[in-house]
Amino acid sequence: MNRSVRIGDFKVSDEEKKIVMDILSSERITEGIKTREFERKWAKKIGTNYSVAVNSGTSALIAGLFALKYLAEDEKRKKVITTPTTYIADSNAIKIAGLEPVFGDIDKTRFSLVPSEIEKILNENDPTEFLAILPVHLMGYPCDMDKINEIAKRNNLYVLEDSAQAHGSRYNGTTVGSFGDLSIFSFYVAHNIQVGELGAVNTSNLKIKNLVKRIKANGRLCFCDVCTRLEGKCPLANKQEEDIDPRFTHDIIGFNFKTFDLITGLASHKMDEMESIAEERRKNVAYLNEGLKEHSKILQLPLYSEEVSYLGYPLILKEGKRKIIRAELEKRGIETRAFFGCIPLQQPSFSYLKEEYQGKLPNAEHIGKNGFYIGCHQYLEEKDLDYIVDSFSEMFNK
Predict the structure, then answer these.
(1) Which of 64, 324, 335, 398 has minimal Cβ neighbours within 10 Å of its Cβ?
(2) Beta carbons of 177 and 185 less than 8 angstroms apart
(3) What is the pLDDT along the chain (398 residues), one digit of tens a residue?
């Protein structure tokens, strides 16, 4: 192995170390001032009225879906239309919320749920059984939100926009995560803005915001940004005839999805780099596309766009076996990941759907079998990119 070119990297500056130490010195690391600051900044960054911090992107999905269930108050609406090609968390969250995923095929180059597939699903089923559409901006590629929102509005469906892999991506010039009834983000270490484990639910709907705040705290009555109960000022407590504490009174089912100030304090600083991170990743994608274009008969190179903040550098094999090529790259020190498998056809945990979807998701099935990705992150240097290009040339030309 000559070099190590990783899928992603995580580096902490001296300034960021100081932020963490200052928070530790404050002797308050649970949710507090830094978390509220993060929520305000992230809402403004994305262009929504509110943001609620949770402990992961998966928790954000679960809390968001439960909020929509509670808001709808209709037990008949149990289906969610989503993509079969993404990380398993979306489908898992749908099931955990007591709902059922319904899959449509994806676009071959942007890997996103195709609006015509959504229309087809609704036309072939009773639309009143559906709760929401859950599009995913996979690898940073924005979905067609205008068409998705139009379909949702026409069929009285919510839109939960999964932007976990798309910090800084834009759709028609507007930041993704601001188009749906709510959106979710993940700040997992492999994503574009990285702090380890952190998630957020963004929305401009006050009812959804308040529900998510309650769900993330085991379904408690309290949804205040700063609890003033001990000062006798809590508006919820003062409205009750009995002496109750809304922090420890629970009227809906929820979870412990709270985060802590160490992480949100770091995220508040790192979000200021969102645009520069996206720009560096775009430059790297353009550089690799130019260097690898001679192999376009073997590889489908990623579609380049100035509006995409790339999670990674996705490649789809037209010829050859993925296992062999990935093994060769790994031997050369270039870290790879298989692309996300088609959930109902290639993920064992959803094998109960295999017969139902056989032959119905050709694009997702093909990409799940033949796709993989390598890094394009902001810490890569030109020598790393040249090494990647040279490695592919050596593999394909020998």
Answers:
(1) 398
(2) yes
(3) 567 899 988 888 899 999 989 988 987 888 889 999 999 999 999 999 999 999 999 999 999 999 999 999 898 999 999 999 999 999 999 999 999 999 999 999 999 999 999 999 999 999 999 999 999 999 999 999 999 999 999 999 999 999 999 999 999 999 999 999 999 999 998 899 989 899 999 999 999 999 999 999 998 887 876 554 444 556 666 555 666 777 788 889 999 999 999 999 999 999 999 999 999 999 999 999 999 999 999 999 999 999 999 999 999 999 879 999 999 999 999 999 999 999 999 999 999 999 999 999 999 999 999 999 999 999 999 999 999 999 999 999 86
Encoded tokens for 381: 């240097």
Output Rg (C-alpha) for the chain, integer angstroms.
Answer: 22
Task: Map tokens 């509220």 to a residue.
Answer: 36
CA distance 344 to 354: 5
Q: Which residues contact 44 (CB under 8 A, 6 or more apart)?
A: none
Three-state SS at 106 = strand
Q: Are 48 and 185 in contact (CB under 8 A)?
A: no
Torsion, Cα 329 333 334 338, to 10 degrees, reads 60
**What whole-number distance in Å separates Cα of residue 209 and Cα of residue 49?**
9
**161 close to 57: Cβ distance less than 8 angstroms:** no
CA dist 86 and 88 (Å) reads 6
Q: Which two tokens stand for residue 65?
A: 């879906």
Nearest Cα to Cα of residue 131 among 211, 203, 67, 85: 67
Strand locations in the chain (E): 50-54, 79-82, 100-103, 130-134, 158-162, 170-171, 174-175, 182-186, 199-203, 299-300, 313-317, 337-338, 371-374
| β-pairing verdict for 299-300 and 313-317 | antiparallel
What tokens does 233 get? 């000022």
Burial of 232 (0-12, 13-18, 19+ CB in 10 A): exposed
Which residue ranges form the domains of the chain, and what is each CATH number? 14-272 (3.40.640.10), 273-397 (3.90.1150.10)
Which phi and psi angles does 256 have, rounded to 5°?
-100, 90
